[in-house]
């Protein structure tokens, strides 16, 4: 018995139609996931770090980019550039040029916190967001990549 090629194509079309009508949400999700991965991949930029020694106790770190104009070893200022400054030597908190807040041992014990995230949640301007089994910390609206927390 011969099968009609037109009927075969119609059957194949109806099976595709059933598949896409029942799984369109998964297909849409996979497509959006793929697009977001591609967008993240394109946004990843390599940056070099330039460390300039300002004094025996202070080091300033700036990010630099090669913008194609031959200034490969120079720092190119940008509006959104973030400069991180740290100090190796001891310095009094009141002499600090950067807004710094210290949470004392007594405050930590009085809060009853079980981990660092719970301690940080008690501070104003700090949001602790659960993220894949850990936490991300947002400070004053800045994303976690711009926040530095030191634990002693």
TrEMBL record:
Q: Where is this region: Disordered?
A: 48-78
Q: Does the keyword RNA-binding apply?
A: no
* GO cellular component, as recorded: cell outer membrane
Q: Which residues form the TonB-dependent receptor plug domain?
A: 93-152
As one GO molecular function, the record gives:
siderophore uptake transmembrane transporter activity
Query: Which GO biological process categories is it annotated with?
Result: siderophore transmembrane transport
Question: Where on the tree of life does the source sit, at the highest rank?
Answer: Bacteria
Arranged from A to Z, the UniProt key words for this protein are: Receptor, Signal
Q: What is this protein called?
A: TonB-dependent receptor plug domain protein
Species, as recorded:
Leptospira interrogans str. 2002000626
């Amino acid at each position: 018995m011969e099968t009609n090629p037109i009927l075969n194509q119609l059957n194949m079309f109806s099976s595709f139609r059933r598949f896409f009508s029942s799984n369109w949400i998964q297909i849409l999700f996979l497509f959006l996931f793929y697009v977001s991965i591609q967008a993240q991949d394109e946004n990843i930029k390599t940056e070099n770090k330039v460390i300039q020694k300002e004094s025996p106790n202070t080091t300033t770190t700036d990010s630099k980019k090669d913008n194609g104009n031959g200034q490969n070893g120079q720092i190119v200022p940008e509006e959104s550039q973030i400069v991180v400054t740290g100090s190796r030597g001891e310095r009094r908190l009141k002499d600090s040029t950067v807004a710094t807040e210290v949470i004392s041992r007594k405050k930590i014990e009085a809060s009853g916190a079980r981990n660092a995230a719970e301690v940080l949640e008690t501070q104003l301007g700090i949001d602790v967001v659960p993220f894949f089994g850990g936490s991300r910390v947002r400070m004053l609206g800045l994303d976690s990549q711009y926040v530095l927390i030191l634990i002693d």
